[in-house]
Amino acid sequence: MSYRIGSGIDFHQLAEGTPLFIGGVEIPHYKGAIGHSDADVLLHAICDALLGALGLGDIGKHFPNTDERYRGIDSKILLEETMQMISEKGYKVVNLDSTLCLQEPKIAPHIEKMRQVISSRIGINEADVSIKATTTEHMGFAGREEGLIAYASVLLKKETDG
Ligand code: MG
């Protein structure tokens, strides 16, 4: 089997007085995301998509929120460790598509930087990293700015015998 697809989803609450990291980029905003790590909703969804493609479980299995090693950790490190697992199985990423759902702030000005950060970590060109964003038209918890959501899909290709 040479190709595998994976999908991931993640949610975090938003609160005042904490930084907002999305896609490995700190975004100026009056609210940030709450979590055991740096609460980067997009990188977590991407990790879950990568793990899911190879049936390796989920981010909570590999980086449990009960483990003090991961308290406040930069999620770029979690992505790098996840990619290590993918590489050890002999797979490479072909492309990544993702969507953020949040009411505020506007994500468009930060997408190019996110694509740089993510593409360098997963070993593909920026052109093969897609990041989209939508509001929920003020509906639900995302619309009330209580939280945010990220979805990610990846395609992996077997390169070597892992
Ligand atoms: Mg998370």
Biggest sheet character: 5 strands, mixed
Estimate the mean pLDDT confidence. Answer: 96
Q: Give the name of the CATH superfamily.
A: 2-C-methyl-D-erythritol 2,4-cyclodiphosphate synthase
* Overall geometric form: globular
CATH second-level architecture:
2-Layer Sandwich
CATH structural class: Alpha Beta
Rg over CA atoms, rounded to whole Å, is 15 Å
Number of strands: 7
Query: Which structural class matches the secondary elements?
Result: alpha+beta
Number of helices, where a helix is a run of at least 4 consecutive DSSP H or I residues: 5
How much beta, percentage-wise? 25-35%
Characterization of the model:
It is a single chain. The protein is of the alpha+beta class and 162 residues long. It has one domain (3-158): 2-Layer Sandwich (60s Ribosomal Protein L30, Chain: A), CATH 3.30.1330.50. The chain is 29% helix and 31% strand. The protein is built from five helices and seven strands; from the N terminus they run ββββαααβαβαβ. The strands form two sheets. A five-stranded mixed β-sheet has the order 4-1-7-5-6. β5 (91-101), α4 and β6 form a beta-alpha-beta unit. α3 (75-88) packs parallel to α4 (111-122). The longest helix is centred in the middle third of the chain and has 14 residues, at 75-88. The chain is globular. 40% of the residues are buried. The model has no long low-confidence stretch (mean pLDDT 96). Bound molecules: magnesium ion. Magnesium ion binds at residues 10, 12, 35, 41, 44.
